[in-house]
Amino acid sequence: MLRPGRVGRVGVVGAPVAKAAVVTAAVTPGPSPVAKTAVVAAAVTPGRRRRI
Amino acid sequence: MTDASLDELGPVDFVIVEFPAGKSNFTGEMAEELVRLVDAGTIRLIDMLILTKAEDGTIEAMELSDLEDLGPLERLEADLAELLAEEDVVNLAAAMDPGSVAGVLVYENLWAAPFAAAARRAGGQLIANGRIPMQAIIASIEADEELEKVGD
C-alpha cells in the first residue's frame, strides 16, 4: 500500500510509460541466438568504424 | 535542495523490471547486485516500488517496507525518498502486461555526477539522452553486413 505522502503530490514521470522492446526477445529467439549475441558484441567492440 | 547540491546531482533515471506471470525466479541475486551497485557508489537508490497488475488491469502498489523479508534491501530501505507519487504509479504501470509483477527503481547515476557537474560548469546543458535498444544495434550490424555483401 502506498504511503500517504505519495498521495496527491505532483508526479515526476509525466506521462504513461510505453513498454520497451524486450531485450531478450531480440537476442535469444531465432535460428542462431549465439550468433546474434556475437553480432551485438561486435557492434560495441572498440575500434569499429562508422559507415557514412 | 540547495542550488549547490542540485549542481552536484547526477542524472536520475527509472527502470521498470517486469516479471510476467509464472516467470519470476527470485533467488535474492537481484537484491544483492543492487546493494553492490549502491555500495560501490555507482548509483544512489532514491525510490523503489513493487507494482502488480491484475488480469483486469487493476494496479496495486507496494512499498518495499510492505515486503516480509527484505533481505539485503533492508539496509537500503531506510534511505529511500518518496519521490514517486500516486499518479506516477498509474503512468508506470501503463507499461506492464496484465498478470505481471514489476519492480520500479528510481536512482541517481552517481558515476555520472562529476562529469555532469563539470559539463554544467563549462556552460553545457543536457539537451537529449536516451537508450539505444539492443534490437537497433542488431539491425544496424545486419544492415552493414548486407551492404558488404552487395559490395562484394
Structural account:
The complex is a heterodimer of chains A (52) and B (152). The longest helix of chain A has 11 residues, at 33-43. Chain A has helices at residues 23-27, 33-43. Chain A is elongated and about 50 Å long. The mean pLDDT of chain A is 74. By secondary structure, chain A is an all-alpha fold. Chain B has 6 helices and 4 strands; from the N terminus they run H-E-H-E-E-H-H-E-H-H. In chain B, strands 1-4-2-3 form a 4-stranded antiparallel β-sheet. Classes of the chains: A mainly alpha (52), B alpha+beta (152).
Structural class of chain A: mainly alpha
Write down the secondary-structure element order of chain B.
Answer: HEHEEHHEHH
Unreliable stretches covering 5 or more consecutive residues of chain B: none
Structural class of chain B, please? alpha+beta
Tally of extended strands of chain A?
Answer: 0
What is the CA-atom radius of gyration of chain B, in angstroms? 19 Å
- Estimate the mean pLDDT confidence of chain A: 74
Oligomer: heterodimer
* Largest pleated sheet of chain B: 4 strands, antiparallel
- Range of strand content of chain B: 15-25%
H/E series of chain A, N to C? HH
Mind telling me the C-alpha Rg of chain A?
20 Å
Main sheet specs of chain A: none
Instruction: Classify the helix fraction of chain B into a percent range.
Output: 25-40%
Distance between the termini of chain A: 53 Å
Largest interface: A-B, 30 and 32 residues
Overall 3D shape of chain A: elongated
What's the overall geometry of chain B?
globular
Could you tell me the mean pLDDT of chain B? 89
Q: Order of strands across the biggest sheet of chain B?
A: 1-4-2-3
